[in-house]
Amino acid sequence: MVLNLKGFAYKHPGGSFLIEHTVGRDISKFFYGGYAMDGNSRDPTASNPRNAHSNVARKIVNKHIVAMLSNDKV
Question: What share of the chain is helix, strand, coil (3-state, %, to 5)?
Answer without folding.
Answer: 30, 5, 65
